[in-house]
Amino acid sequence: MVKESPIRILLVDDEIINLENIGHFLGQKGYEVSTANDGSEAIDQLSQSNFDLVVTDLKMGAVDGVQVLKAARELHPQIEVIMMTGYATVNSAVEAMSQGAFYYLAKPIKLKELHALVSQATEKALLRHEITLLKQRIIAQPDVTQFIGHNPEILKLKDSIAHLAQLDCNILITGETGTGKELVARTIYELSPRDKHRFLPINCGAMSEELISNELFGHDKDAFTGAGKMRQGLLESTAGGVILLDEIGEMPIGMQVKLLRVLQERKIIRVGGTREIPIDVRILAATNRDLQEEIKKGNFRQDLYYRLNVVTLHIPPLRERQDDIPLLTNYFLAKYSPQDSISRTMSGKALDCLVDYEFPGNARELENIIERSLALCPDDEIQLHHLPPEIHGSTANPATYNPVVHAPKSIKSLEENELEYLLAVLDSVDGNKTQAAKIIGIDRVSLWRKLKRFKSKGFTIPWMAD
After folding, report:
1. CA separation (Å) from 168 to 66, 182, 247, 272, 332?
2. How many CB atoms within 10 Å of residue 136?
3. What angle do CA 14, 17, 20 make, to 5 degrees?
4. Helix, strand or coil for residue 90?
């Protein structure tokens, strides 16, 4: 891992001779070393400057190495700490490691061993720092809509992308139509070392086997009628870049055999040619199909699946992360509102309707709905009737609701009383779930889940789409 400025190490020891000897040794190895001869001074330096690594004695005066370690991790979460001590006991080692020390060295220190540990620790700290920066870049991408949200599965997806972008392995991206598979692929490309070269998405379901073969591999002169000159294929012309094979599950079986050979050999042969040509391109693939099922049906080669599926990234459908719909809605409102106009907003009822909708077309469908609603709305706030009929048309009329439809006895169950209370609060605020949640004392997502649970049991729930 490359770092333009020297790696900074804080060396802490109350024995001056050790401080000088180890500091001199690490300085000769190219590190920028600052020293402190007690724990208090070390913590002062940590509060004022940034370091990549701390190497500290364990047993010192009033402030020992464990306290230095805790302060270092609080002030600089990315930092690593190596502990040294002349009191090499099991208990002190366990304590140091449990507090997050990278490693534990007994005195007298073997300089060669220390140097190896310093190299490993700084590499780990810099990798963690780089991953953090990559995650920030992901969030900052202006057109990466699937990252608008804080759903736990999306947060995991961000972590995976930030890490996998730096590797050069094949990745299979799965998810329903409209979840943003191409956007995930493009983000991997933009965060990767190949970002200065070309990114090329290819729809495998839109071409015949002959056309795909010609597009990917190119052809030699006179390979077929009309081939008056040699033509490079996309795998060859995208040298150094990234190719996304979108809808890989629809690739003809004959073409799958040719692609497998390319992935194994990293070479191609142009149509009509005989010479093998090396290629340098990273392959990403995406599908909305269950490739395991396609393999069972004989529609997809198992050996190709294993070649493509070094790592799988799955994008959850929007219906599994309804709590992100308000954030996505605001993002699309900002994206499609005219630059010179007042910020457009969504009314509470309209937003509630969107959250209750299942979104079979996922984020792409939500984006289209927002763009359409803005076109139809002459005012600054989008109302329920500005949404497509298939969304708001199924919303129940609050005036006709029956709080409890399952009441076989005169004494109501605890569950029925809870539902009646929830619906009474909703009725008092005209179905606005955000206001109702505040009155009840829970968050909006918790309220939505409660209502969803009641609806699944057969209760009539107004203000929720069927």
Report:
1. 39, 18, 21, 30, 33
2. 10
3. 95
4. helix
Residue 450 corresponds to which amino acid? K
Q: Residue 72 corresponds to which amino acid? A: A
Distances in Å between the Cα of 25 and the Cα atoms of 107, 112, 142 are 16, 10, 47
52 residue type, one letter: D
Q: Is domain 319-392 annotated with CATH 1.10.8.60?
A: yes
CA–CA distance, 397 with 276 (Å, rounded to integer): 68
Closest by alpha carbon to 343, among 304, 382, 390? Answer: 382
Is 27 in contact with 119 (CB distance < 8 Å)? no
Cα(135)–Cα(80) distance, rounded to whole angstroms?
Answer: 20
pLDDT at 368 over 50: yes
CATH placement of domain 148-314: 3.40.50.300
Phi, psi of 123, deg, nearest 5: -65, -40
Domain residue extents for the chain: 8-132, 148-314, 319-392, 398-456
How sure is the predictor about 76, in pLDDT bands with cuts at 50, 70 and 90? confident
Q: Residue 246 phi/psi, 5° resolution?
A: -80, 150
Task: Count Cα atoms within 13 angstroms, Cβ side, for 227.
Answer: 16
Question: For the chain, what percent of residues have pLDDT higher than 90?
Answer: 33
pLDDT of residue 394: 43
Q: Quick check: pTM over 0.70?
A: no
Classify strands 231-232 and 218-219 as parallel, antiparallel or unpaired: antiparallel
pLDDT in tens, 302-313: 999 999 989 999
Query: Average pLDDT over the chain, rounded to whole?
Result: 82
> Tokens 């996922």 label which residue?
362
Do 8-132 and 148-314 show the same overall fold?
yes
Cα 386 to its chain centre, rounded Å, is 33
Q: How many beta carbons lie within 10 A of that of residue 203, not counting itself?
A: 14
**How many beta carbons lie within 10 A of that of residue 179, not counting itself?**
25
Fold of 8-132: Rossmann fold (3.40.50)
Tens-digit pLDDT profile for residues 380-415: 788 888 888 888 754 333 333 333 433 344 455 666
| C-alpha atoms less than 13 angstroms from C-alpha of 19 in its C-beta half-sphere | 16
**Which position has the token pair 């364990």?**
58
Total number of residues shown for the chain? 466
**Residue 211 to residues 202, 231, 235: CA-CA distances in angstroms?**
12, 13, 14
Distance CA(431)–CA(423), nearest Å, equals 8
Q: Which CATH class is domain 398-456?
A: mainly alpha
